Recover the amino acids of this structure.
């Protein structure tokens, strides 16, 4: 039997169907928890962010238009922002995340990552792409993604000139964009 | 910037959170006026977020899901029990907004609050005025956006949360619209003890308190947007002291309390 698409599960959540939330949690919690653990490196903190994330999904199901956006990508955008906010003790990302959610919810993703096999292949491609980047580029882009650092902060932390950091991050993102579509 | 639109690289860097300084300010100014680039940014955000797939999946403990589902069931019960109170609330709440609601946005907030007051007093076109203000105020965009939504609605209310006997010194304000399920919290409390968090609760007319999120001790300079299930009418708001990260239901002492109406 084909699994229910996210759009159907979101519709069911709007009617108060807890089982739909349970199913979505089963689909995406491992993907999200892996990312949260990588960012936070703290099991309890990652668990709390994960729980809050799905609670937000439940509360805001009526506002999510599945036809216009990818639910797992939206979850990753919000989840990453929450984790980095927590990691760095900043509230700016949390405050902005609703806006980001709106933006994310206006785009039809080119990657159907609802499908677990597609997601797994994409994960392999991303890991491979990161692995192929020169070490300094990979380090710069990982500091930005997983530590939430700006280019200036990366320069300050690593002692590398800001201009060099900018070049490295831009070059790395150009390479990744080709893979991420 | 190239031509009329932003560089894709800049959008990627902005989505990544890596852009800063003048580059960021220039891009944000452009984004505010360019729906096309907003859409491109949405694409960049999703694309960038997928980089998280590079982290190996990890299965959370079963207790996490169990706690989540408990919380959801509690909210459902609280939502059902509060409909009558919500109806009553909407009849009695016709407050106008003044300058006394003090969010910690410094000058930006003062401008918005003043304008809101003027809107109420002069009965001007609120939506248009607030839209103009939003364009001017780039900082704390989401909080301001939420505040604009709330202050523009006649059925919103302001609650002042006061210090409790023997509790730490502090005061906070919640601006809340039950119909939208949208609010803004700001305030200041003495720093929480180590290993503890302050947590905000919506106390409905009946049923269990509803988690409105963990709040910092000092939210004077950065208000928190509160999003709850629409239609959930508050009898009061309260802040309790909880174990770090908060709990699904209050377990600690009430630090601040403010009744509605």
């Amino acid at each position: 039997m084909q699994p229910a698409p996210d759009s159907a599960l979101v519709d069911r959540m709007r009617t108060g169907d807890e089982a739909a939330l349970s199913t979505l949690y089963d689909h995406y919690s491992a993907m999200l928890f892996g990312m949260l653990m990588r960012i936070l490196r703290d099991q309890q903190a990652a668990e709390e962010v994960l729980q809050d994330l799905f609670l937000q999904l439940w509360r805001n199901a009526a506002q999510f238009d599945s036809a216009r956006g990818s639910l797992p990508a939206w979850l990753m955008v919000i989840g990453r922002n929450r984790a980095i906010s927590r990691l760095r003790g900043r509230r700016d990302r949390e405050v902005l995340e609703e806006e980001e959610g709106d933006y994310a919810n206006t785009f039809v993703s080119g990657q159907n990552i609802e499908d677990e096999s597609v997601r797994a292949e994409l994960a392999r491609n991303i890991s491979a792409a990161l692995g192929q980047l020169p070490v300094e580029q990979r380090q710069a882009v990982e500091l930005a993604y997983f530590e939430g650092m700006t280019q200036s902060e990366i320069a300050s932390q690593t002692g590398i000139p800001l201009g060099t950091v900018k070049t490295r991050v831009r070059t790395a993102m150009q390479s990744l964009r080709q893979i991420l579509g | 910037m190239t031509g009329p639109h932003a560089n894709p690289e800049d959008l990627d860097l902005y989505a990544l959170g890596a852009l800063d300084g003048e580059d960021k300010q220039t891009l944000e100014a452009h984004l505010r006026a360019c729906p096309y680039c907003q859409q491109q940014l949405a694409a960049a955000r999703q694309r960038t977020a997928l980089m998280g797939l590079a982290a190996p999946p990890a299965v959370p403990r079963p207790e996490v899901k169990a706690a989540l589902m408990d919380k959801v069931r509690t909210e459902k019960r609280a939502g059902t029990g509060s409909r009558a109170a919500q109806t009553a609330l909407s009849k009695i709440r016709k407050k106008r907004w003044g300058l006394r609601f003090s969010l910690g946005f410094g000058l930006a907030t003062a401008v918005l609050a003043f304008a809101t007051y003027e809107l109420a007093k002069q009965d001007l076109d609120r939506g248009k005025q607030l839209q103009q203000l939003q364009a001017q105020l780039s900082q704390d965009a989401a909080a301001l956006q939420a505040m604009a939504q709330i202050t523009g609605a006649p059925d919103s209310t302001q609650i002042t949360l006061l210090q409790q006997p023997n509790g730490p010194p502090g005061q906070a304000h919640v601006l809340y619209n039950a119909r939208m399920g949208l609010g803004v919290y700001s305030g200041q409390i003495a720093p929480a003890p180590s290993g503890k968090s302050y947590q905000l609760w919506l106390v409905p007319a009946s049923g269990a308190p509803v988690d409105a999120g963990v709040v910092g001790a000092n939210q004077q300079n950065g208000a928190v947007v509160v999003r709850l299930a629409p239609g959930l009418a508050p009898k009061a708001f309260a802040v309790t002291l909880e174990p770090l990260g908060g709990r699904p239901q209050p377990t600690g002492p009430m630090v601040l309390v403010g009744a509605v109406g």
The mean pLDDT of chain B is 74. The beta strands of chain B are 157-163, 170-177, 182-189, 196-204, 210-215, 224-227, 234-243, 254-259.
